[in-house]
Design goal:
The structure holds two protein chains of two kinds. Chain A is α/β, with parallel strands linked by helices. Chain A has eleven helices and twelve strands. The chains are: A alpha/beta, B mainly alpha.
Amino acid sequence: MFSFRILYDTFNNQDLLFSMPTKTNFIKSIHLLATLLVLAILPTSCDSSGSGGQAGDENKIVVGATMLSMQNEFVVNVHDEMEKKAEELGVELIVNDAQRSALKQVEQVESFIAQKVDVIVLNPCEVEASSPAVQKALAANIPIVNVNSATSTTPTAFVGSDDTEAGRMAMRFIAEKLGGKGNVIMIHGYMGQAAQIQREKGAKEVLKEYPGLKLIAEQTGEWDRAKSMSLMENWIQSHGKGINAVFAHNDEMGMGALKALEDAGLKNKVIVVSIDAIADALQAVKSGRLDATVFQNAHQQGATAIETAVKIVKKEPYEKQVLIPFELVTKQNVAQYIK
Amino acid sequence: MKTVFEKPEPVPNKNSMEQEKLVVQHKSDNSVQAFNREKLGKYGILIAFVMLCIVLSVITPNFLTLTNISVIVKQVSINALLAFGVTFVIITGGIDLSLGSIVAVTGVVAASFAHPDTYPLLVPLAIGLLVGIAFGAFNGFIVTKAKVPSFIVTLGTMTIGRGLALILSKGRPVSNLSDSFNFIGGGSIAGIPLPIILLGVVFIICLLLLKKTTIGRYIYAIGGNEQAAKASGIDVNNIKLFVYTLSGALAALAGIVLASRITTGQPNIGAGFELTAIAAAVIGGTSTSGGVGSITGTLLGALLIGVISNSLDLLNVSSYYQQVIMGAIIIVAVSIDTISRKKGD
């Protein structure tokens, strides 16, 4: 939508342009041509990375999936597993990337409904804003399975993990390591996203149980390694040796904080824990740099989502809610997670 | 065109004076007033920066320490590199929106060649820089040959760059990099972090390029009045091509430093970096209508942004408020700048 808007504006309002070429008809027609070209390419490139809708085998089950963001490593992992499972079960999987936009996600579900797919898998962008997608699918009698995170409208089935548990797990590890006493820093994910809200909730529950643990600073690192690193560098300036532990809502931010602490020569005094168990973090746990990460099972989530979706279509019995447990990864058990 | 003028005066902004004189010949402006405006505008941002630093060092504990200043400059270095490049582009009257994506794609490409025990350090550096130069040259080529406005061209390459970064990395961060590569963004020489040294070197090169060379004079002339510049025999297209290529190369350098600093090539990094870089240039007195701007001003602009974000973190201000404060300060800084320019008129 964004790029369409700009193209439209620039085409109609030439004042918007920073430098305008000589306005000959020739150039105008090139502009028009270019605009049309882009318009023609855009929908195909944005909307479907999967192929041709219901073309092909008439009896083949078609699953439409819309993913939060294919720029996120965890989501990419879930997606890869979904594709594997779909191939294994012989169903056709159409995957759309919502690019973190709940609006786009709802539109993608609408187009799945129009294509009459058999079942939809939704990896929600947001709790509230992605809910209309669930409502629309249910209203059109197309079953919908949420994977990884929740929407406020209950879908046909939910496959995911309880993020509050991950927050509790990470903070409990810190509490035990510090003997229930010390100064803790928390680096949040994008404020307002389900994972951030629930991981914070879980961590703060544990903090309440240990009055000796003090949360001395908290701030969002927007899931981003560079942002979190800068944040940590700044906190080292203000709190210095007063920091005993860091809990980051994901591994990217945990790795950023870790780097800042290492650069300042403080790592051996500070415990760092984060969530997701991405490859980089597992290596860091193995070499004793990162104290712990929490494994969220992308593979099982992706595979189970497709299994559940297919079961629903085939009218086989299925579980309405599959909660895949988080697992704490420390130096002791890290070997089994590294592939 | 050759500008002949009297002895260079010991003033901070000699070249913009030359540039103003160039414009004078075509616009018959008053060169003395124009110069005062420039000078006052430049001191406006300096005054704003110093005042802010004084206030912050009073209210923020640990703000005015040597290590914290080093932390700030290190954090600023990436934005400053981008801002230098975009300053050149903006002075010619253009814009470069592709910077953030070039940072991501060069970071990913350089990281892919920087795994331990694969290639010597020179390989990831050279390939990374080449990718940035290619992007910049492409921007410049389309802007000059197809006469497409830079806003549109770089909007396009912004999207292309992001896509390529994701394709090349398969959507995943490229990690496990060699120690020598990680040294660029993380190491220090004689106690000074390498990104700061790099920033200093690039700053001096850009400063000299814009102030002391013919190319620098031409860049101002093109931004001041492109038709007049063309009429007086300046090869406008080649200068523009050079400016966009330089911007791409500096973005590549920033991408390499960033990838090295966080020890991974991240395909999704850098979204919005171009806006912070443009903000730094504009705060530093670069005019988006072209013809006016300086590298020193841009450095001050970048430092201003860095200082604010650092001190708000030190004060543990919530990120919600940080965004409001940051926006307000940008507006105030540019207003001070604009008002002091007006007074010069």
